Prior knowledge:
Layout: H1 45-51, H2 54-81, H3 83-101, E1 106-110, H4 112-127, E2 132-134, H5 137-140, E3 153-157, H6 164-170, E4 179-183, E5 202-206, H7 213-217, H8 224-244, H9 248-254, H10 259-268, H11 273-276, E6 278-279, H12 300-309, E7 315-318, E8 321-323, H13 325-328, E9 350-351, E10 356-359, H14 364-374, H15 378-383, E11 389-393, E12 399-404
Parallel strand pairs: 1-2, 1-3, 3-4, 4-5, 10-11
Antiparallel strand pairs: 6-12, 7-8, 8-9, 11-12
Helix pairs in contact: 2-3, 2-8, 3-8, 4-8
Amino acid sequence: MEDRPTMTAYMQKNQPLTPVSPLLPVTLPHVCEPIPPLPMTPPDADEILDAASNEAALRTGLHVIWTAKDAVEHMWDLLHSDPVAQEGFLNAVNIISKTIHRGGKLIISGIGKSGKIAKKVEATMNSFAIRSVFLHPTEAVHGDLGIIAENDALLLFTFSGRTQELSALLQHIPPHHPLLVITSHTHPSTCPLFAGRPASNCVLLPAPIPVSETSSFGVPAPTTSTTTALVLSDALAIAVARRLYPTPADVFHKYHPGGAIGATAQRIGPRRMGDIAIQVADVPIAQKHKHSTSSPTLTALDILLAAARSPSGWVRVSSDTIIAPRQIQKLGSPEQLDYPVHTLDHGVVVEKGDWISVPAASTVAEARQWIEDMRLNERGRTFLREGTVLGIVDARGEVSAVVEIEDVIELEPPHGMEY
């Protein structure tokens, strides 16, 4: 077997005047009955608690939380099964990723409670080096429009989809800027903010709620709607971070050195390959399923069924052969399900002898640099290609864990739809 490269040798943001009070009458009108004196001190807190219904307060709290949970589950169902929601989410991930790659930034805007959510999302995006700026829609038309550059994209928060301040803002932003909108609308054709802009540059991110806040709580206060908008935008931020960076956690810790999170990261130190590895002993071995073909040979369907039960997504074909999650994801087409495992494309099933050894003690950054350096020549690109399994060598010198190369380094530019 040809020698494989290893990493062991490589390791190195007039107050106005008070109006004159009217003259009071010298004598006060006669009061039929004396007004009882008011207490000089507020009622005791215990009396207030006794007078209030603690059970009703608790029921209210539980009702609000349950309503929010129901709305998030409804949004999950939508993203899981609705083609419009799925297309919008994927387009948003692609557009934001490309915007950052091209040196642009994400302009985030909203008004009122939606504006507060937008500010939180701005902070989350920036913590993942997804360069973002909050633009107040009113301040924008008073000079802050200058913050928008040629390659920037827009992310707007509006439950109604017809917020006047945002409509006024868009009149002053050229239509070539991609427009992403998190809103209650479930189809782009019904969202007024898209009117007059190219459909190819408009991305709808549906965040509806199954029951209106007025119906749920008797008041149209933004509660459930802001929760769903926040959850969806958090999902977007994590998805973009994973698209842009092989190890988003390293990026996050780099830009979050303060507080308890920063202190924990400093105490733990840099992430090492052993920290992100999957122990081989924890990877299930695929078994022949009764609903698979009558042949005793393992098929792609058997692999998919084993992957569904695997916490890590890895599956072993034998004690020394393994299939990585990204390779398993390629087995979804119906015509492949009956294929015997040994007939699958080269590189799907990887024998232990073909795993590239990397010390568990090496940091993720060191491993990334080593891979980048090795791939500068043709031989390195041959061994360290898409689908490569990195065998993690423990302190005993044994390869006891595995990592997908894509978890360490991005081998290809992000794939996505053009805009």
